[in-house]
Design goal:
Elements lengths: L5 H11 L3 H10 L4 H18 L7 E9 L2 E9 L2 H4 L2 H17 L4 H6 L1 E2 L2 E2 H12 L4 E9 L2 E7 L9 E7 L4 H17 L11 H17 L7 H16 L5 E2 L2 E5 H7 L4 E8 L3
């Protein structure tokens, strides 16, 4: 019989997150050698990972950081919220974020190929997923630059890590600009704009919204002489829904996000909003 104790089993379980029977089998196979047992668990975990490829990884966390005017945000997914709120998964998220910030990667492919302790980060993510016993994947990354970038993370549940994350980059670094940028970041988390301003809305989408507005107005029997004003009014309503700067400001709906930034003597350069699984 292999020479190991209950404490050895507990220690290896803490290192790997593996089940008790899996740990005992690994220690038996390794004749009590904890390092060999760890390797066995990793190998078996990696084999199991291939069986998990088809599973949906819809839980997870959002993490963000800002260094020297560059904001970076990542989403990393797991299969269950049980794993998503575990210390080991949160630590993995922090590691992925650190590599994202230091590597300069601006897409997932580049991030997973980035170096981590002499190997691609993607290999480490896969190994950690194997130890966690679930499919784990880095879903997306955002990188924004500005005179000031505000990161905002929002928890939708007290026992889960952040499920919503926002980055807002502005062109000024004054106290007023920083305050406005943060307020706008909170607004974005709540109101989910799609575009920075109405000019960013693709022409084909605008044309389609214009067509729908006209057809609706005609179906309602609106007078021809008022048709153009009605169409433009409904387009303006659409822009208020999807374009950040046109949206009524969440903290004071009598003004717009654009006006809030203007009063702070700054302009929004870009934003990114992630929600886990969305």
């Amino acid at each position: 019989m292999a020479n190991y104790t209950v404490k050895d089993i507990q220690a290896l379980r803490e290192r790997t997150g593996a089940g008790m029977m899996d740990v005992k089998k690994a220690l038996d196979e390794a004749e009590g050698d904890a390092d060999k047992a760890l390797e066995i668990i990793r190998v078996k975990g990696l084999q199991g990972a291939s069986k998990r490829e088809g599973r949906a990884a819809a839980e997870g966390l959002i993490a963000a950081t800002v260094k020297d005017g560059v904001g970076v945000m990542i989403e990393i997914n797991s299969e269950t919220d049980f794993v998503a709120k575990s210390d080991k998964f949160i630590e993995l998220g922090n590691t992925v974020l650190e590599v994202a910030a230091t590597s300069g990667a601006d897409n997932v492919e580049a991030l997973l190929a980035a170096d981590y302790n002499g190997n691609p980060l993607g290999d480490f993510v896969k190994e950690e997923g194997a130890l966690l016993g679930e499919k784990v994947e880095v879903r997306r990354i955002a990188r924004l630059e500005g005179a000031y970038v505000d990161p905002y993370l929002h928890k939708t549940s007290a026992d889960l890590p952040a499920q919503v994350g926002v980055l807002v980059a502005v062109d000024a670094d004054s106290d007023a600009a920083q305050t406005a940028a943060h307020d706008v970041a909170v607004h974005i988390a709540a109101m989910s704009p799609t575009y920075l301003n109405r000019d960013e809305v693709p022409e084909d989408i605008v044309a389609n919204e214009r067509r729908i507005a006209e057809e609706t107005a005609r179906a309602e029997g609106k007078p021809e002489r008022a048709m153009q004003n009605i169409i433009e009014g409904r387009l303006t309503g659409y822009f208020k829904e999807v374009a950040l700067l046109d949206q009524p400001f969440a903290k004071d709906t009598k003004t717009t996000v654009g006006k809030v930034l203007e009063e702070a003597d700054t302009k929004a350069l870009a934003f990114a909003r992630f929600r886990v699984g969305a």
